[in-house]
Amino acid sequence: MSDLTPQSDAPTPTTDKITQAARETIYLCNFRVSVDGEWLCLRELNDISLTPDPEPAHEDPKDPIAIERLNLMNMAKLSIKGLIESALNLGRTLDSDYAPLQQFFVVMEHCLKHGLKTKKTFLGQNKSFWGPLELVEKLTPEAGEITASVKDLPGLKTPIGRGRAWLRLALMQKKLSDYMKTLINRKDLLSEFYEANALMMEEEGAVIAGLLVGLNVIDANLCMKGEDLDSQVGVIDFSMYLKDGGPTSKSTEGDGQITAILDQKNYVEELNRHLSASVNNLQAKVDALEKSNTKLTEELAVANNRIITLQEDVERVKEESSQLLESTCKVSKSDGSANGQVLGEARKQIKEETRLRLDVEKELEVQIGMKQEMELSMKMLEKDVCEKQNALLALRQQLDDLRILNQELSHKLQTSDGAMKQKNEITSRLDDTANQMAGTIKQLELSEKDMVKQARSLNTAAEKLLQKPH
Description:
The chain is mainly α and 470 residues long. It has helices at 13-23, 64-90, 99-113, 130-139, 144-152, 159-173, 176-184, 187-190, 203-211, 246-334, 340-467; strands at 31-36, 39-44, 119-121, 124-126.
């Protein structure tokens, strides 16, 4: 019975079990997992002792610092992988409000804070990772621009705020991996800021620096002028990395689906506008071709009329020439030598008529060539008009298909909205259930305390009863 009441300060088996369970609790960099509303958070354990005795009787076989480094490395892997995948699926430049990017900076902040030495100043103890980051400027001249920009930002008043700004500028410059590798390779300089078993001094730091190379495929545009980097609280959201995250992960997945549908709808509407503009342009070109076709047809009719007129003139000149030759021959037979002047004039007139005839024939050939060219142009215009009409019909068909697709996407969007409402209702119900369970747990804890008190009182009474016979 005396075992029920521990009277010495030495740890009992029960307290050893409690201590071992506390040590085996999932923790990360002196943080414990806890619930804050709908999110999983990490709470600091700086003021919580895992052992009741300041001098434990034996050493824990598991190194807590090594577990912290491993947990931080795994969290960095998950954060970098999730950020790359979500950014590539999103397909646009990231901004400061992007949740996976914010979580990545929180994880990097915990990695840089691990094992930092505490420095005493006039204002108290200072523990910031801005000091190690300032070394990069000395090791790599390219980082001088980032450090100068951070120091010139007007809203930063604390070293931790400057360190956060430095991480964001290095990511935008796509040099974060290079700077971290340069820093980790100089452990002789890091030893001034970090303990020997810190993450930046061990292999896990080199692994994280290698993982950061993948972030070079991401384009980020982060505005830090209106952002309060000094007073932000770095809390890791574990729900983003759980395989089965419950209602929160489902709602996040539903939001992603709605975002994808809206992006598709916007793309279809933009494509629809481009196709409508193309159809209007082609219609205007067809109208212009039809007008030019009508004009060419009129010119061809005028040319045909002129050719017919020229042919009639040629026939008439031929008849006149033949008549003139016949009359000349008759005159020469009747009056051979007496009328030589008349014959010379007749010959001159014949030559003039022949020259006119040749000119008319040349002009006729030119008009015939122009007619052939116009006919060829007409055929090419007709072919071009047919091709434009076919293209117009195909574009109209595509436009109809896009309208149908737009209607389907609108229907999907409405369906997704309904599903999201149902998921939100389920989430609210689960929250109520969680609150009820929390109340029940509190009641059980109170009842457990009452039972412990009763057991102690019973133990005291039993001891008194055992001491009376003596």
